[in-house]
Design a protein that fits this description.
8 strands, 7 helices, 5-stranded antiparallel β-sheet, single chain, 3-stranded antiparallel β-sheet, globular, alpha+beta
Length: 219
């Protein structure tokens, strides 16, 4: 456990009973959050997509920031991204697909349109990126509740996780971000850009393409 002096903010291991709070923050911070009212995906699917692997299959690599007994941010990580990809492919994606069919989400016109645009982006090669898993075998996903951003909470979570990875002798970490703001945040923490691309699958809604950066750091 780590405490930020004079702030009352504590960084510690994730607990099972904090699953709901972590899921709520993940939805608030998602690129899809602003489109939920248009029946594009739903909060449950978005939260599963962003958090389910980490909290269900690698909870020992999950951490929260707490203030006054409230979870105000989280970092969900993995020390072995290759293992993570296998679990997502074999367990998480089938679970998400089953949910989408059972609740009829997959048949909504908004989601059929999203699928069409995702397939178009895939065919254009937008999801092809170099494999950095050998040099940077770990990954992370970090988010802070909107009202608590700008207080160094994200930085502390990232530094805390990197220290744990170093103790495990993990040699590097990499992950993707989808905004200039996120890219600049991680560059200030010493990460470098390993790959740059753009996604077009939300352009029909957002009016612009999404930047895609793979950030990495040797440990």
């Amino acid at each position: 456990m780590v405490e930020i002096e004079n702030t009352g903010i504590i960084v510690r291991n994730y607990r099972l009973e904090e699953r709901k709070a972590v899921r709520e923050i993940s939805v608030q911070s998602s690129i899809f959050a602003q489109y939920i009212e248009r029946q594009l995906l739903n909060e449950d699917i978005i939260a599963d997509l962003l958090t389910s692997y980490y909290v269900e299959y690698e909870p020992q690599s999950c951490f929260v920031a707490e203030k006054n007994d409230e979870v105000v941010g989280y970092l969900l990580g993995s020390s072995d991204v290759l293992k993570m990809r296998k679990v997502i492919k074999n367990r998480v994606i089938p679970m998400l697909a089953k949910k989408a069919f059972q609740n009829g989400l997959i048949f909504r016109s908004a989601n059929l349109n999203l699928i069409k645009n995702l397939l178009y982006s895939y065919c254009k090669g937008e999801f092809k990126v170099p494999d950095f898993s050998q040099e940077y075998p770990a990954t992370l996903h970090v988010n802070i509740a909107p009202q608590h951003r700008g207080k160094m909470i994200g930085s502390l979570l990232v530094y805390h996780f990197m220290q744990i990875l170093k103790e495990k002798q993990v040699k590097g970490i990499h992950f993707g971000v989808l905004s200039e703001k996120a890219k600049n945040f991680f560059m200030k923490l010493g990460f470098e850009i390993l790959f740059t691309g753009r996604y077009t699958f939300l352009q029909y809604l957002a009016g612009d393409t999404l930047p895609h950066y793979i950030m990495g750091k040797k440990l």
